[in-house]
Specification:
- The chain has one helix spanning 12-55.
- The protein has 62 residues and is mainly α.
- 0% of the residues are buried.
Length: 62
């Protein structure tokens, strides 16, 4: 069974404003997601550097 949902947009500005609102919210969500991914990547790199530093003897560290 296919259901069609038809929402008429009588005032055209009303539909375009909703379209802009949802596109801005999507853009903000994507930027936030990329920011979270970047921060997690930096944490992983920092942790691997610390592990590598702990394995070397303190005399050989820079």
């Amino acid at each position: 069974m296919d259901f069609e949902i038809y929402m008429p947009c009588q005032p055209e500005w009303f539909c375009t404003s909703f379209l802009w609102l949802f596109s801005v919210l999507l853009l903000i969500g994507l930027v936030g997601f990329i920011r979270i991914l970047y921060k997690e990547h930096q944490k992983i790199l920092r942790a691997s550097r610390v592990r590598r530093r702990r394995r070397t003897h303190h005399r050989r560290r820079k």
